[in-house]
Each structure stands twice: as structure tokens, then as C-alpha cells.
Amino acid sequence: MKPFSIARGPRSRDEAEGCISGSSSQGTAKPIILVVDDEPDSVDILQWFLRDAGFVVRTAANGSDALRSVQTCVPDLAVIDYMMPGMNGVVLCRRLREQPATQQLPIILHTGTDLSVEEANHELCVDRVVKKPSDVLDLVEEVRELLDRTH
Fold this sequence. Notes:
By secondary structure, the protein is an alpha/beta fold. The chain has one domain (29-150): Rossmann fold (3-Layer(aba) Sandwich). Helices cover 40% and strands 16% of the residues. It contains six helices and five strands; from the N terminus they run αβαβαβαβαβα. The protein has a five-stranded parallel beta sheet, with helices on both faces. Helix 3 packs parallel to helix 4.
């Protein structure tokens, strides 16, 4: 078993950039996952496990940063926290669905609220809802399954 340690920041410059010329990883070996969460510890943990599973990870601390990020790099999937200051996950999901480049983006909504899966799917057109606290390995498996289904 690998020792667990969290190192902030990307493992390499390529991983930091993730995309070139605003294209997703379509046709490349590693899918790009955008993690949007205002809690640095949550981001670090998700980032570590997703990278360990073979994904390129881009992060955003809020909805506005996420919208800027997808203008330069459309990810293959987004994991979005529901409760964030400013633009929450609900507003971010709606804004992503309004943009042609991200209308079909697979989205996992990561929430600690009592939001029902049916409500989230109907209201936001998210693909999955994962309740917090969640087992990170289960979340990674949800990412894999959703990517397999959509790509």
C-alpha cells in the first residue's frame, strides 16, 4: 500500500496546465477532472486520490474561477461542491449548462445537504450526486464510471 501524504500543487507543469488551446483530453491518455471546492483540504484530498488514479486534475476555489478555467480548458468531468460562497454549486452548474462548450460536461455534485438526487438531476441536469462525507475511493469510482459511460 502506498503511503498517504498530500502535497499541494501540481506534480508537473503539464499537469498544472492540463489543456492546450482550450481542448479537453479527448484523444489523450489522461482524462482531465475539474474539482471545484472552497475547502482547501477537500481539494487536496480529492486531487491526491484522483491523480493517483491516473487523472489530470485542475482545481478552482469557487464558481467564478471554475468558469474562467473552462474557457481555457474544457475538462472531461467536473466534481463541484454544492455549498460555496458567492456562486454556489447550483448556480455554477446552471452557468456551465448555458455554455455550448460545457453543455454536455459530466458533472458530479458533491454535497453535504439533503438535496435529493432526483431534485439535483431535474433542476441542475447533473449526472450524479455524491453526499458528503463520502469515501474518496467511492467518489473516484463514480468518476471512472461516469467517464466510461459518457466517453
